[in-house]
Design a protein that fits this description.
Distance between the termini: 26 Å
CATH architecture: 3-Layer(aba) Sandwich
Number of helices: 3
CATH class: Alpha Beta
Number of strands: 9
Strand content: 35-45%
Strand order of the largest sheet: 3-4-5-9-8-7-6
Number of domains: 1
Largest sheet: 7 strands, antiparallel
CATH superfamily: Mog1/PsbP, alpha/beta/alpha sandwich
Shape: globular
Order of helices and strands: HEEEEEHEEEEH
Radius of gyration: 15 Å
CATH topology: Protein Transport Mog1p, Chain A
């Protein structure tokens, strides 16, 4: 699972953000369905949705101060769910390193259920060298040879605007 070393923390953090845990796949009335590279999730209605070949993001405003996203990456080796404990330890180290490199503070590490599987999720507060501080929640969904990073970002202390993070975590699925 050592695929993290060659990726820039800035690139990773661009797709990371604060979110709330949850499970289930119920559709929320008025929510927009966001589709990406082999996954989908829901975001609050009226948010702006954008896609790349490997990512999908929904933003509440043009500045992107509040957003939810999912980004797919290839793993070097196939993930085996029986090795979740080992994977969690490596992800914990990576999350701590990312927080430090981003001038942030890791405030929570937890195992949560997303799309019927255990994942690791992290909350951090980032204090960039310029601009306002923001809260993020990052989740790592590991499936076969893919990792999908779930991200929620919001201004520091704003909690979960429009319930977007909770919606991301509760509606995310790798099924179309």
């Amino acid at each position: 699972m050592t695929r993290f070393g060659k990726r820039s923390p800035i690139v990773i953090l661009a797709f990371l953000a604060a979110s709330c845990g949850g499970s289930g796949h119920g559709h929320v009335s008025g929510a927009a369905i966001v589709r990406g590279a082999g996954f989908r999730f829901e975001a609050p209605a009226g948010w702006t949705i954008a896609h790349t070949a490997t990512a999908a993001v929904a933003r509440s405003d043009a500045a992107g101060t509040t957003l939810v996203s999912a980004t797919a990456f290839r793993l070097r080796r196939r993930y085996d769910p029986r090795r979740f404990g080992s994977a969690a330890k490596e992800l914990d180290r990576v999350a701590a390193d990312l927080a430090a490199q981003a001038h942030g503070t890791l405030t929570e590490s937890a195992t949560v259920n997303v799309d019927g599987a255990r994942i690791r999720a992290y909350r951090l507060t980032v204090h960039p060298t310029s601009g306002a501080a923001y809260d993020e929640r990052i989740g790592f969904v590991l499936r076969g040879t893919r990792e999908i990073q779930l991200l929620c970002r919001a201004p520091a202390g704003s909690s979960d605007p429009a319930g977007a993070c909770a919606l991301l975590y509760s509606s995310f699925t790798t099924r179309s």
